[in-house]
């Protein structure tokens, strides 16, 4: 275990200067947190209602869903300047960058479509009809399948990236918010916020393998609302944000058992690891802060004040 | 008369086996005679409720297209003096799924028709407690928030703020008196104090003289923290706010209002529903629209999960622990299996913002905190759902 983490940190290069970028939904800003000092070092203005955030492969650009500006903004992470806006369709909420490092797949929450944007040509290359309120976006590691979850239709739509057609629809519990493929491309995880569950699918058969339930003493079941989640690189542990339950669940990825609940700030949304995966940063919407979790001990070690309603998080090494 | 529905009933039961799955719903409205009110500022839109059902239909259809399921919605509006029973029979002959936008006695008339025995009736416009109590019917589900749910929500909020001394003004219409009775009952239930009560009697045109008339009318009420107003016909309450003798907030039908839905809801994804609704209806969503939307989505969700259009199968599923619906109010919606009432959070809001969403923190329940609002299992005299318990 220790070997692996060490190796990973060596691969990621020197940790000095690594940052966590957090979008503040109701402040129209990004807070940049220094991973070593755990302080906010910069606050950068964005378009209206920034939510989804992701970096290009070489970290030379950062893409930001400015939902209420109806645009994906492209920013120079060094200067913090907006370089240009990409056409995105209406109300982009979340997106995923295809492994080709060129195509952004965007969920347009108001329009029931998934939009594919070519970031080089800066144009929309396709729009695919999906269910109502598309939100969660995931791409398989081989780039062949993109998942859109639709919150009111309660489905994960499997989209073939070569034909741009939906090839399967998997029903999940109410209000699916987030989806991720495992590194080995064998599993797809989908969280259902109102259903209070996480479903795990076999990517080959698209069959449901497991459904994970949660229970926290003293928290009403209704308020346990899984949203964002992240996997450790060894594919052994998943961290799942539980929204207004104010906890992050720690899940054994082999047995699908919940091993721990970590207390964080209020209404936890999404999260990002430090480059060496020793720390996990969670965005807490209602309390307006970021909780830093020590991954090894599974303990919260610091809470960092950011802007109003922090939502998305992304790491910049 | 009896022949026709029976034979059609057989046809409907046989359908799923050999046709593509289609769910047909009738929205049946019994229009209410207009009540004269002082102000014309907020006319009730003609499609109140109907627009919500239409949106629910379109939401269902989007899901259905991925599953080979289709939905059809037929709207029937009966004039105030029209024959609701006849209209219901026609609708039930076509489909066992009925969204009923009618007052309580008409709900019972329709529910008690022999043709309605195996139907699923979703009532969206009868807030009366008695329909969730001794006058419940096994074939009726309630998606509209009841008077007692709303009153309980308001009292939780007031108690949470320690604003416990209340005065109450009740309007002249029967609906005002029903709402007033629910408020009084909730005051007792949550241990607040009703310090004074008056029945509205002013006949003056308050559009011109509210400041003097209302000040005088409220002068002899004992001191209170909050003035409650029961004015469900939206007649005089708007003129009471800021014209009272004592500087006190108002609540109930004006000021801080508990309702099944509020245009001020924006959290929990609600802004998506508000936007979708406004785009389709060109106006904000009202509580009846929401109740009708939930009714359509309830049928849609049940068909999605069971693959069946058999009303008995759907009813069983809807009343089971399996059923849960995202209603954009932060907690899953489900149905109480003791009286068919929708379990739902109640927004307590003023015109410009949400104050809070009830149940509020601290009101605990052994099974579900939503059951702190309205008739809980032990409080309800409903027996018709006996087989579910």
What does this structure look like?
The complex is a heterodimer of chains A (317) and B (389). With 317 residues, chain A is mainly beta. Chain A has one domain (2-12, 19-316): YVTN repeat-like/Quinoprotein amine dehydrogenase (Methylamine Dehydrogenase, Chain H, 7 Propeller), CATH 2.130.10. Chain A has one helix and 28 strands. Chain A has a four-stranded antiparallel sheet, with no helix packed on it. The longest helix of chain A has 10 residues, at 2-11. The radius of gyration of chain A is 18 Å and the shape is globular. Chain A starts with a helix and ends with a strand. The model of chain A is unreliable at 1-15 (pLDDT under 50). Chain B has 389 residues and is of the alpha/beta class. Chain B folds into two domains: 3-145 and 262-348 and 368-388, Response regulator (Rossmann fold, 3-Layer(aba) Sandwich), CATH 3.40.50; 148-258, Rossmann fold, CATH 3.40.50.2300. In chain B, 35% of the residues lie in helices and 18% in strands. Chain B contains eleven helices and 15 strands. Chain B has helices at 3-18, 50-64, 84-94, 104-111, 147-160, 174-189, 206-219, 237-240, 270-281, 287-306, 311-318; strands at 22-30, 70-78, 97-101, 120-123, 140-142, 165-170, 193-199, 226-230, 250-252, 257-258, 325-326, 332-335, 342-343, 346-349, 354-358. In chain B, the strands form four sheets. In chain B, strands 2-1-3-4-5 form a five-stranded parallel sheet, sandwiched between helices. A four-stranded parallel sheet of chain B has the order 7-6-8-9, with helices on one face. In chain B, strand 14 (346-349) and strand 15 (354-358) form a beta hairpin. Chain B is globular. The relative contact order of chain B is 0.15. Mean pLDDT of chain B is 91; it is low at 1-19. The A-B interface holds A 109-110, 112, 131-133, 151-155, 157, 166, 169, 171, 173-175, 193-196, 220, 222-223, 244 and B 59, 62-63, 66-67, 269, 272, 275-276, 301, 304-305, 324-326, 330-332, 368-370.
């Amino acid at each position: 275990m220790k070997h692996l983490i060490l190796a990973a940190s060596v691969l990621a290069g020197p940790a000095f200067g690594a940052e966590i970028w957090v979008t503040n939904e109701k402040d129209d800003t990004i807070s940049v947190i220094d991973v070593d000092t755990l302080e906010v070092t910069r606050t950068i203005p964005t378009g209206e209602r920034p939510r989804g955030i992701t970096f290009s492969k070489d970290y030379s650009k950062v893409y930001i869903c400015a939902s209420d500006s109806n645009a994906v903004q492209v920013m120079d992470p060094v200067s913090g300047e907006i370089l240009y806006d990409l056409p995105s369709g209406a109300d982009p909420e979340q997106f995923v960058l295809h492994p080709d490092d060129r195509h952004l797949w965007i969920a347009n929450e108001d329009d029931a479509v998934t939009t594919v944007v070519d970031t080089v040509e800066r144009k929309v290359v396709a729009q695919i009809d999906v269910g109502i309120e598309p939100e969660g976006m995931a791409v398989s590691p081989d780039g062949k399948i993109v998942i859109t979850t639709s919150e009111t239709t309660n489905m994960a739509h499997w989209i073939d990236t070569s034909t741009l057609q939906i090839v399967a629809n998997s029903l999940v519990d109410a209000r699916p918010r987030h989806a991720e493929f495992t590194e080995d491309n064998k599993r797809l995880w989908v969280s259902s916020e109102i259903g209070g569950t996480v479903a795990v699918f076999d990517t080959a058969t698209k069959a449901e393998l497991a459904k994970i339930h949660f229970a926290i003493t003293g928290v009403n079941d209704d308020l346990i609302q899984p949203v964002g989640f992240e996997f450790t690189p060894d594919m052994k542990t998943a961290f799942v944000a539980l929204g207004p339950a104010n906890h992050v669940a720690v899940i054994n990825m082999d047995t699908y058992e919940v091993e721990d609940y970590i207390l964080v700030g209020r209404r936890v949304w999404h999260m990002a690891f430090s480059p060496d995966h020793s720390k996990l940063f969670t965005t807490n919407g209602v309390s307006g802060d970021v909780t830093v979790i020590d991954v090894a001990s599974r303990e919260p070690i610091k809470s960092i004040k950011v802007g109003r309603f922090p939502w998305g998080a992304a790491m910049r090494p | 008369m009896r022949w026709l529905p029976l034979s059609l009933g057989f046809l409907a039961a046989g359908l799923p086996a050999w046709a593509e799955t289609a769910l047909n719903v009738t929205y049946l409205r019994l229009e209410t005679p207009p009540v004269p009110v002082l102000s014309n500022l907020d006319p009730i839109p003609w499609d109140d409720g109907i627009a919500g059902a239409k949106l629910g239909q379109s939401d269902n259809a989007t899901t259905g297209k991925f599953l080979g399921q289709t939905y059809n919605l037929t709207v029937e509006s009966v004039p105030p003096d029209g024959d609701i029973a006849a209209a219901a029979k026609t609708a039930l002959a076509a489909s066992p799924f009925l969204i009923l936008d009618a007052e309580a006695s008409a709900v019972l008339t329709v529910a008690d028709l022999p043709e309605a025995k195996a139907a699923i009736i979703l009532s969206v416009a009868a807030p009366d407690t008695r329909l969730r109590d001794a006058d419940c019917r096994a074939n009726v589900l309630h998606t509209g928030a009841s008077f007692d749910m709303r009153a309980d929500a308001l009292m939780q909020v007031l108690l949470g703020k320690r604003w416990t001394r209340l005065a109450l003004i009740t309007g002249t219409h029967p609906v005002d008196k029903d709402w007033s009775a629910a408020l009084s009952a909730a005051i007792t239930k949550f241990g607040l104090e009703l310090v004074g009560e008056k029945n509205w009697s002013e006949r003056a045109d308050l559009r011109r003289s509210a400041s003097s008339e209302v000040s005088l009318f409220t002068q002899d009420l004992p001191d209170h923290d909050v003035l409650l107003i029961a004015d469900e016909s939206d007649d005089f309450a708007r003129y009471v706010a800021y014209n009272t003798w004592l500087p006190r907030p108002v609540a109930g039908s004006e000021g801080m209002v508990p309702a099944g839905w509020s245009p001020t809801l924006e959290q929990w994804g609600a802004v998506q529903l508000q936007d979708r609704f406004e785009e389709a209806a060109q106006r904000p969503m009202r509580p009846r629209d929401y109740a009708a939307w939930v009714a359509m989505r309830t049928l849609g969700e049940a068909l999605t999960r069971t693959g069946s259009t058999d009303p008995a199968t759907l009813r069983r599923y809807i009343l089971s622990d399996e059923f849960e619906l995202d209603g954009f109010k932060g907690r899953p919606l489900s149905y109480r299996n003791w009286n068919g009432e929708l379990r739902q959070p109640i927004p307590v809001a003023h015109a410009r913002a949400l104050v809070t969403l009830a149940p509020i923190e601290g009101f605990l329940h052994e099974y579900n905190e939503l059951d702190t609002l309205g008739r809980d299992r032990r409080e309800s005299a409903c027996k018709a759902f006996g087989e579910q318990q």
